[in-house]
Design goal:
Shape: globular
Number of strands: 24
Largest sheet: 6 strands, mixed
Oligomer: single chain
Distance between the termini: 71 Å
Strand order of the largest sheet: 16-17-18-19-21-20
Number of helices: 12
Radius of gyration: 29 Å
Helix content: 25-40%
Strand content: 25-35%
Amino acid sequence: MQQDILINWSPQETRVAVVESGAVQELHVERALERGLVGNIYLGKVARVLPGMQSAFIDIGLERAAFLHVADLWQKPVNGDGLPANRTGAPPKPIERQVFEGQTLMVQVIKDPIGSKGARLSTQISLAGRMLVFLPQDDHVGVSQKIPAALRDELRGRVQTLAAEAADGGRTGGFILRTNAEDATDAELSEDIAYLRKAWSRIREAATRQPPASLLHEDLNLLQRVLRDLAGEATQSIRIDSREQFDALLAFGQEFMPAAAARLSHYKGERPIFDLFNVDEEITKALGRRVDLKSGGYLIVDQTEALTTIDVNTGGFVGARNFDDTVFKTNLEAALAIARQLRLRNLGGIIIIDFIDMVQAEHQQAVLAELRKQLARDRVKTQVGGFSALGLVEMTRKRTRESLAQLLSEPCEQCHGSGRVRTARTVAYDILREILREARQFNPKEFRIVATPAVVDMLLDEESQHLAGLSDFIGKPISLQAESSIGPDQYDIVLL
C-alpha cells in the first residue's frame, strides 16, 4: 500500500503523519522539551536492589529512578553459540548476585517513563543503523523474520564476512539484519558496520570520562527516525514544511539513508501541510472516546493505565438483510477501524475488544482474520488471541512510548480522569451531611454554603424542605452563595 509522510516542524514541536490511501494511519509527535528516552544510553548507578522483585532501581539522572529487571541483565555467553545465558532458556542468576548498590552500569532505555512508572532499562546494548542493529556485547548474527527464509542464510554469511574483515582479527560484535537490508549491497552493509562501530567507540570513550548518571548516547530525533524507521519501499514522498530542517535532514539522509533521502522534498504550499489530509481534525478525533464507522456503527475506546478496552456497537446500521448480517458487517468494518485506531493513537499493552456477539463460528473467524490482516501492516509487534468464552478478543501491542492521549492531554482536574462527576443532588446531600457533622463540633452563628449554581438551585428548589429541616434541627440559619468558578462537585462550608 502506497504511503506519504508529512512533516510539520516548529522550534517547539515536530509532528509526523503517515498517510495511506488518503487516510492518516499514524501520528508521531516529539516536543523539544519532552523528547522520548527510548534508545538513549546512560552511565547508571545502582540505587537499590530488590531481591523480592528480582529488580533494581538505577539512577540515570532523571527525576524518577529507572527500573532494571533481572531478565534485562546481559550475561556472558556460556556456550559456543554466542548467545548470552539469559537468551538460551537458562534461568538467570539472582539479581543480588549480579549487581550491588553503588555499582556503575552502562544501561539503555527500552521503555519511556509512563505515568508514575520510571523508565525501563536493559544492560543489553543495541545501536540501530539503517540496515543493521549492532550488538556490541554479542557475537552472533540474526536476521529479521520479515526477510524471506530463502535469503536469511546468505545475508547472515555476508554480514559475518564483512564484519570479520572490518574487525581485522579483532572482536566483531553481533548484528541483526533489519528488514530493509534484504536488497543491500556489500558496500551499503560495510558502511553501516563502520558507522555503528564508530558510534560504539564514542560511547565507550565517553563512559571512561563521564560521571555516573550521565547521558552517553542520545537516540536519533524524530526527523531522523522518519528516514530510518518510517520510510520504506511503499513510501512515495516525504514532505517537510521547513527549509532549514529539510536541508539538515537531506544531508543526514544522503550520508546514511540515500534511498529514503531521494523521496524527501520541501513543501512550499500556501496551505499548512497538515491541511492536505485534515490531519489536525484526525488528531482531535483520536483524543475522543467515540469513533464513528461509515455504516452507522461506532467504537468506544477507553484507555486506562493497565489496559485499553474497545467496544463495538451497531448504532444506526440497519441496512443488511437480517440481524446476523448486520452484526457481521459491522464487526468487519470495526476490525479495520480498530487496527487503524491502535496505530493512530499508539495504544499499547493489553487490549480487550468487545465485538458484537456473533452466532456463527465462520463469522467470528472471518472477523479475526480481517483484524489480523489489518494488524499485519502495523510496524509495532502485535499478538491476537481468539474469542474467549465471554465473546471477547484479547490482544497485545508492544508499548515503548506514551500513547497520543498521554502525550497531548492530561486528566481533568474536576473528574481526575474518571470521565464523570457527581450529580448536583449527590453534592447537595454531601453538603447536608457535612453541615450536620460540623454542627456537632462547632457553634457558629450561621452556616454558609458556597457551591455551583446547579447545587444551589437544587437546595433552593427540590431539596428546600430537607435544607429547612436541617436548619431547624441544628438551630442555626443556613445561607447559600452560588459560585460558578468552582468545579461541579466542589463546595465549601463557611462558619460565620
